[in-house]
Write a structure and sequence with these properties.
Keywords: Signal. By secondary structure, this protein is of the alpha+beta class. The protein has one domain. It is built from 8 helices and 12 strands. The strands form 5 sheets. It has a 4-stranded antiparallel beta sheet, with helices on both faces. The chain has a two-stranded antiparallel ribbon with strand order 1-8. Strands 2-7 form a two-stranded antiparallel ribbon. A hairpin with a 7-residue loop joins strand 11 and strand 12. The longest helix is centred in the N-terminal third of the chain and has 24 residues. About 13% of the residues have low confidence.
Length: 277
């Protein structure tokens, strides 16, 4: 049996290797049309996001915050809008259970506006307790996807020729003004993770080497989002690992290499990864 201590040491070394590695890559000077299978996958992502968002907006009026800060959905599901698909309703209920666990553990807090804040001890970037005035609503994570819905047939990768040099030796926090803002965000229905381009390339590079969960931790650390790997929900890690590095790179390229973000549906067949704008 492999020694657990050796596994932890190996994982730590792998994360450091991903963080403190210099590399560069060149994007070809041509317009690359998406293949049929790629368009189908992107279309599935968009439709899934739209349905999930519609369900969230509809259910919000049924959400109650309890005295201990946890959430519950009030009302009989049989009396709800028949257009609400059961798979999304059940997914949100399952997500809410995970959020409630984190609330009870003291990792998250809530308010009467149904807002969720992360404890600064675990998360540095996101909707955190010390910066409640800078709260980011979840709508922004679906806005770009919905706007892209009518342009699916025109989707292409038109990047031009450019070389992206990623220098990680000094572990700088690369600031940008793209949307959604970099961070790990919790809401009553689930969570979302937004990575800048620097962290996105750490993730892609790590997944390419087979680092799996360690690649996710390294990407979050590279973006300055977390203070501990324990701050990353297992459901979110699973959602990210649902995609391979090639598809994440494709989505990043569609948006012009500004980074990507993930929405964890946990129990929906396909989670969401989309490009920042």
């Amino acid at each position: 049996m492999i020694n657990k201590r050796k596994i932890r040491i190996f994982t730590t070394l792998l994360i450091f290797c991903l963080l403190f590695t210099n590399f560069s890559f060149v994007i070809a000077d041509n317009k690359q049309e998406l293949t049929k299978s790629q368009k189908e996958m992107v279309n599935k992502q968009i439709n899934n996001a739209i349905e999930f968002y519609k369900t969230i907006k509809y259910l919000e009026k049924y959400v109650k915050r309890n005295s201990d800060g946890t959430f519950e959905i009030k009302g009989n599901s049989e009396n709800m809008n028949p257009q609400i698909k059961p798979i999304y309703l059940e997914s949100i209920k399952a997500n809410m259970k995970e959020i409630n666990k984190l609330i009870k553990q003291g990792i998250l807090t809530t308010d009467n506006k149904l807002r969720v804040y992360a404890n600064d001890k675990y998360i540095r970037k996101g909707n955190i307790e010390s910066k409640k005035d800078n709260y980011i609503d979840y709508d922004i994570f679906f806005k770009n996807v919905i706007e892209e819905n009518n342009n699916l047939n025109e989707l292409s990768i038109n990047l031009g020729k450019k070389t992206l040099n990623m220098g990680f030796n000094n572990n700088k926090a690369y600031a940008d003004s793209y949307s959604p803002p970099v961070g790990l965000y919790y809401y009553w229905w689930g969570c979302e993770l937004a990575l800048n381009e620097h962290a996105t390339q750490v993730l892609i590079n790590g997944l390419n080497t087979g680092a799996a969960g360690a690649a996710v931790v390294a990407a979050c650390a590279a973006a300055g989002i977390i203070t501990s790997p324990a701050a990353i929900p297992a459901g979110l890690v699973s959602a990210i690992l649902w995609f391979d590095n090639a598809y994440i790179a494709l989505v990043d390229s569609i948006g012009g290499n500004k980074g990507v973000y993930f929405v964890s549906y946990l129990y929906v067949t396909s989670p969401l990864v989309w490009h920042r704008a």
